[in-house]
Amino acid sequence: MTIEETRAQIRYSIPEEMKKGSIVGNVAQDLGLDITRLRSGRARIVTGENIQYTELKTDKGTLIVNDRIDREQLCGHLTPCSFAFEILLENPMELHPVTIEVLDDQNDNPPQVLYPVQTGGSLVAEMVPRSADVGYLVTKVVAVDVDSGQNAWLSYKLQKATDRALFEVGSQNGEIRSIRQVSDKDAVKQRLTVIVEDNGQPSRSATVIVNVVVADSFPEVLSEFTDFPHDKEYNDNLTFYLVLALAVVSFLFITSLVVIISVKIYRWRQSRILYHSSLPVIPYYPPRYSDTVGTGTLPHVYNYEVCRTTDSRKSDCKFGRAASQNVLIMDPSSTGTMQRIQSEKSILDEPDSPLEVINTL
Questions:
Q1: Given this model, what pLDDT does residue 166 score?
Q2: Contact (Cβ atoms closer than 8 angstroms) between residue 62 and residue 23
Q3: How many CA within 13 A on the CB side of residue 269?
Q4: pLDDT averaged over the chain?
Q5: Integer Cα distance of 263 and 357 in angstroms
Q6: What long-range pairs does 311-317 form, CB within 8 A, spacing at least 24?
Q7: Helix (H) or strand (E) holding 250
Q8: How confident is the model at residue 134 (pLDDT cuts 50, 70, 90)?
């Protein structure tokens, strides 16, 4: 692709912060082009920047503002401030350089206070000793303005003060100094409201609050911090959250205690109901045990085997494998049973008796 013709460069000057849609110039007239040529050549703006501050209207041949033009954002404090682009046409190919200069700096930025730092969660206070002389430097308000030229000139003014006869603010440098000696009658806490204004038309301003404590030691300064309105508000919020947390914990504790007591009472009532119940108790008999039906005085049948051989009188009586085990319960009706056991034992004690298996009920 080759460029067959490059025509003269055009230049426009516009003020900063020109409204979107405002006409910068008539490109067709200034370049000597016909509207038909702009359309047939598909005229368009070519720029290497991501932001296109202008737009070409091919139906009217005019160049208009397409985006906000902030001189400080575009050039900073450089002078002159301008930006350039090219208008491209096809069939045949043409390039027309265009330069737009931003002339006037509009006062579109307010001053920014750098010190004292204004934060929502902390409080900065300056300490002034009670022995401070006249002209004592308390602090300095530091502010900047990103505008250029006269719009960036700043001035400082004391708007409100606890005692206007005690401190003053330098109009050009923002220094806060004492204008007389501190006396015992002066309030310990001093609050100063300083306004920072630029030199634009109309001017823009920012407000900064400076807290001053008249004290001789740092612990004394700390004791005064909690009395400032900002700290009072912060403490009120903290107290609210602490009370809320305490209420929640107390509610959970009482609820848990009630649940535990309820469970204990329920179990106690269940045990009392079972204790006073008149339901019959069904006895449990282990396997191979049965109640006596009609004869005998023992409550259960007890089976055992006794083995005896010749000359067993000379040795201890050895029992074989017991068929079952049980505890004999003695009662008045068991006298006959015990006599029968003794008679059977005497038979066993006779010498040379054959092996016998005795079943005793």
A1: 93
A2: yes
A3: 6
A4: 76
A5: 60
A6: 313/349, 313/351, 317/348
A7: helix 229-275
A8: very high
Neighbours of 75 (CB within 10 A): 17
- Reference 150, options 114, 106, 186, 194; nearest CA is 106
The amino acid that residue 49 corresponds to is: E
β-sheet with 23-26: strand ranges across: 23-26, 62-65, 54-57
Give the strand pairing for 94-102 and 10-14: parallel
The helix (run of H) or strand (run of E) holding residue 130 is: none
Tally of CB atoms within 10 A around 319: 10
Pick the more confident residue, 52 or 156: 156
In 3D space, the residue among 95, 113, 98 whose CA is nearest the CA of residue 30 turns out to be 98
Both tokens of 65, joined, read 């503002």
Using DSSP's 3-state secondary structure scheme, residue 67 falls into: coil
3-state DSSP assignment of residue 282:
coil
Instruction: Provide CB contacts within 8 A for 56, sequence distance 6+.
Output: 27, 38, 43, 44, 45, 62, 63, 87
Question: Tokens for 346?
Answer: 């005497």
pTM: 0.47
Q: Which 8-state DSSP code applies to residue 134?
A: T
